[in-house]
Design a protein that fits this description.
- The strands form two sheets. A five-stranded mixed beta sheet has the order 3-2-1-9-10. The chain has a five-stranded mixed beta sheet with strand order 4-5-6-8-7, with helices on one face.
- The protein contains ten helices and ten strands.
- Strand 7 and strand 8 form a beta hairpin.
- It is of the alpha/beta class and about 240 residues long.
- The chain has a single domain, classed as Purple Acid Phosphatase, chain A, domain 2, CATH 3.60.21.
Length: about 240
């Protein structure tokens, strides 16, 4: 079985469309959506596009999905991200049960999929986290392969005989520009879809109603932060990410 893994789309519809147009994604048996799908400039349009994938898509809950639904109901905690409350306001009443139903983890053909860690959707583990940290977050996990996202940085590494895969972020990458994802099948492939970033920024500016869309698109789509910068920031946070 070939499985395409898409994580951290964050409502960037042009990046999502570019990945879905990849031949290997079109041919994949399953598409696993690894959470944090909507919190960004085009949340409703992104949700509708993902729902159109039908039964091929397997959904996993990200912290932003959970927090977005809570914010839309007026019950969530404050999230220090200006686009977040705006995105929550865009959701339709029928969208909230979709987000509520998302599972924390999914196991498929011996692979465990989660957003951050199998026990928590906000924990941070990085490519350079010590083995003791990995053993802690994987306590009780039977699967020998775990696929997770959350930190927006792609990597593959072993943690005491367990393979860990992070596909990176489709919509808000840290490191190189483009839409990052992974293909599982005959091994693991970290993939990056190059797309017309300038056209994507123009599309977002013309189609998103977010007041700060030009600055947002410039920072997250046109000029993403480096992986080194992101690692320095996340290393000091311990248990949470955006």
């Amino acid at each position: 079985m070939n499985v395409a893994v898409l994580s951290d789309i964050h409502g960037v519809l042009p990046a999502l469309e570019a990945v879905l147009a990849e031949p290997d994604v079109e041919a994949a048996d399953r598409i696993v959506l690894l959470g944090d799908m909507l919190a960004g400039p085009m949340p409703v349009e992104t949700l509708d596009r993902l729902l159109a994938l039908g039964s091929r898509a397997i959904w996993v809950r990200g912290n932003a999905d959970r927090e977005l639904a809570a914010s839309a109901r007026g019950t969530g905690e404050f999230v220090p991200d200006p686009i977040f409350p705006w995105a929550a306001e865009q959701l339709r009443p029928a969208d909230l049960p979709v987000l509520d139903a998302l599972p924390l983890t999914v196991s498929l053909d011996g692979v465990l999929f989660c957003h951050a860690t199998p026990r928590d959707d906000t924990e941070i583990v990085l490519v350079d986290s010590p083995l003791e940290r990995w053993a802690e977050v994987f306590s009780g996990v039977a699967e020998e392969t775990v696929v997770l996202g959350h930190t927006h940085m792609p990597f593959v590494r072993l943690t005491d005989r367990r393979l860990v895969v992070n596909p990176g972020s489709v919509g808000m990458p840290y490191g190189a520009r483009g839409a990052h994802w992974a293909l599982l099948g005959d091994g693991v492939q970290l993939r990056r879809t190059q797309y017309d970033v300038e056209a994507a920024c123009r599309f977002l500016v013309s189609r998103s109603g977010y007041p700060g869309i030009e600055e947002w698109a410039d920072y997250f789509v046109r000029n993403p932060a480096s992986d080194a910068e992101a690692v320095r920031v996340f290393s000091g946070r311990g248990t949470s990410s955006t």
